[in-house]
Protein 1
Amino acid sequence: MAAPDRDSAHDWGRDTQKIAVLSWISFLTAAVFSVLLFAYIDPLLIVDAVNVQWIESRNAGYALGFFFLWAQAWVACWYTVRLIRRKRRGPTAWRPADRDGRRDGH
């Protein structure tokens, strides 16, 4: 099998990759936590506790619960991505101290 041509392949930008990874990880997290949540709690009990009249089936409760958990996981992942330290370039970049404890390189 021939290797794909590098020029014809579409490379995703850095922001697109971050959004894709963020969405996939948050989706998997929501799937796991919805299984754990709904193994112990019936979605109709949550609907009765919140007093929402337009949700009439368990499937709608499962779906809304999953999407709520997905949104929560997406926001948590987004904050994590924002808090990751990026490597800075230029004159204001942080440099490790040399042996004498100086950071300016002189």
Note: The chain has three helices and no strands.
Protein 2
Amino acid sequence: MFLTSILESLQREEENGAGNKRPQKRRDLNKNAGQQYLDQLLNCGHPERIKGALRMSRDTFISRHNRLVNHTQLRASMHVSVELKLAIFLHIASRPASQRDTM
């Protein structure tokens, strides 16, 4: 639930823009919604959309992912890929995210 809500927040921010009122959180998403959104984002072919969501280019994101996998002990868990873990970290670190945004 924690991981899905962070990606939901990222998706809402992208869809609604910064100045719009925050919509109610949807709790009926499946467990793979975050991964599906990230896959769609990385494969969309729109560099500005990717940069706006991840705060870096697709190539930089892939490079960071590869470095983390090859030089650290960061590994995918049963339900969360390394890419999704990195996207969640970037969401928290690159925005003034509140605790509510990350829950």
Note: The chain has one domain: 2-21+32-102.
Protein 3
Amino acid sequence: MSTSTISVLSEALNTNTPVKKPLRSMHCHSCNSCVARYDQHCIWIGQCIGVGNHFYFLLFLLFLTIVNIWAIYGTILYWSEHCTTTYQQDGAWTSFTQIAYCSPWVLYIFILICFHTSWATFLLVLQLYQITFLGLTSHERITLWRQSKHSKHPVSLRKTPYNHGCLQNTADFFQCRCFGMFKPNVIDWSKQYTLRFHSLKDQSTHSV
């Protein structure tokens, strides 16, 4: 693991406030608060994503994607029953104009649904990739990516103190034991100041 990678992730002093901050925390100017295991400030829900609500943010993205896909199917089904035009018979442009004339309001809703489906699906896939394959938050991934642009030494997104492998990363985030197959690490990120992690379950210390 490169020194530059560790230095970026293990910064312990908050540059915005003259107090010591836990690892992976970040001061959000929008919320005016320090968020443990800071991921991002989401404009879609108007608050920060951190250790306390990261899991529920994933559920929000998942259900939003499912509902949007169901709504897209519903609009296509409505057009097939109420509009006489078809793509196979009339072509793309004629079908579009006929649909717009047949039900402009449904077309407007369909465009909005497609827009929200695109960003929700993208965020969901990106979040799962970061959690599973990188073990990083969005803020940490962006910070390392920016660091790699200006660093003379290679900065790897995979070789960080928080990446324990795909299965262990998933178990740690979701706190999933899978019938005893995994042993997730339970870490209080609001009180973690060093790279030596203390498990809340057995209070044992192990190096990363």
Note: Residues 198-208 have pLDDT under 50 and may be disordered.
Protein 4
Amino acid sequence: MVNLSNITKNDAAYYESMVGSGGNTSKKSLYDRCPFYELLKDRNSEEYKMFIKVYKTMQYILLDREKLVLNKIYGVDCDIKILSKIAKEINVTPERVRQIRYKANVKILRELREIKIE
């Protein structure tokens, strides 16, 4: 079992604000950048560390391919890569990488909403 005690409600809310609501895209264009891209510029910031703490704790629900994609996008244990580079590595289109990223973040957000965080 995964230890979720290191995630607070504030951590979960911050993660959600960075990746989006995971459902309502009516106000956002597909081409708008997600807020987390700003975090990636300073991987030593407290905000980045909080974001990655939530991601690393919740990645147990992801498939291997979803973890691979998010690890490369977020720069977890590797350099940060853009969608087109990841797409070449896993032999799919950049659009498919975006879809995998979106699906993985929706899974994390759903799980965060379902668990009881103190």
Note: The longest helix spans residues 94-114.
